[in-house]
């Protein structure tokens, strides 16, 4: 299967899932998770019209940003970020999907202030309850959003989650629904773009269910790029 075949197949399935939910496919951002793949593969996808790409390691992101500086790419950082690397994430990022602590928010806010910049972020929520995953507990969302409101340069546009791996994507539908309800409940504390908060949820194995449950951003890797080395 060619890169174009993979890309068109994912786009078609997103459109069908959106239609099933009474939504428009144009309201859903496909983030191509390009981690571990070279910049040349990103260029191939750019020629197909893909704009949004996700990386989970700062050093890889910065290298690709430099190599593809002439390309029109919207970069998403989707991985856990250590506070001591916050300074590397303050330029050229369209959306940071994995804000998970007040201390990290404070460090980013300080670094952004040095550049007179702002950063759109999503608060990562651990709706699956897995100890191995980063993210705040659902019960703590209200408190953390309230505390993060003190940071002028951090703009929290919505929520993100990683669902529990499951053989049947229907098994994780309740987790996506929970994130949607959390975002709606706390919209007054989010800097929500119109018409709704951003919801980054759904990956290669469950993105259609995520779209049906309100995802505005889906993060797709293997279905677009094939197996990783």
Fraction of residues in helices?
A: 25-40%
Query: Which outline best applies?
Result: globular
Assembly state (oligomeric): single chain
Radius of gyration: 17 Å
Per DSSP, the total helix count is 8
Distance between the termini: 17 Å
Provide the CATH superfamily: Alanine racemase
Give the CATH architecture: Alpha-Beta Barrel
The number of distinct structural domains comes to 1
Q: What's the helix-strand series?
A: HEHEHEEHEHEHEHEH
The secondary-structure class comes to: alpha/beta
Supply the CATH class: Alpha Beta
Beta-strand content bin? 15-25%
Please render the helix and strand layout as text.
Blueprint: H1 3-20, E1 29-33, H2 39-46, E2 52-55, H3 58-67, E3 74-77, E4 95-99, H4 102-114, E5 119-124, H5 141-148, E6 154-160, H6 173-185, E7 198-200, H7 207-212, E8 217-220, H8 222-225
Parallel strand pairs: 1-2, 1-8, 2-3, 3-4, 4-5, 5-6, 6-7
Task: Report on the architecture of this protein.
- The chain is built from 8 helices and 8 strands; from the N terminus they run αβαβαββαβαβαβαβα.
- The two termini are 17 Å apart.
- 35% of the residues lie in helices and 17% in strands.
- It is of the alpha/beta class.
- The mean pLDDT is 93.
Which short descriptors sum up this protein?
229 residues; 8 helices; TIM Barrel; alpha/beta; globular
């Amino acid at each position: 299967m060619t890169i174009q075949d993979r890309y068109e197949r994912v786009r078609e399935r997103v459109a069908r899932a959106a239609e099933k939910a009474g939504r428009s496919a144009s309201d859903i951002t496909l983030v191509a998770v390009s981690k571990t793949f070279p910049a040349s593969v990103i260029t191939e996808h750019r020629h197909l019209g893909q704009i949004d790409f996700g990386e989970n390691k700062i050093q890889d992101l910065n290298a690709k940003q430099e190599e593809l500086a002439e390309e029109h790419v919207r970069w998403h950082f989707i991985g856990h970020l250590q506070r001591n690397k916050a300074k590397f994430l303050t330029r050229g990022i369209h959306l940071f999907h994995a804000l998970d602590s007040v201390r990290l928010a404070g460090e980013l806010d300080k670094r952004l202030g040095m550049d007179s910049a702002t950063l759109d972020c999503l608060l990562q929520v651990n709706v699956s309850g897995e100890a191995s995953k980063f993210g705040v507990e659902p019960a703590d969302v209200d408190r953390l959003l309230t505390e993060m409101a003190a940071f002028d340069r951090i703009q929290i546009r919505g929520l993100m989650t990683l669902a529990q791996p499951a053989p049947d994507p229907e098994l994780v539908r309740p987790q996506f629904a929970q994130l949607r309800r959390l975002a709606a409940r706390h919209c007054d504390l989010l800097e929500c773009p119109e018409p709704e908060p951003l919801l980054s949820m759904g990956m290669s194995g469950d993105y259609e269910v995520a779209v049906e449950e309100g995802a505005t951003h889906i993060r797709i890797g293997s279905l677009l790029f094939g197996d990783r080395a």
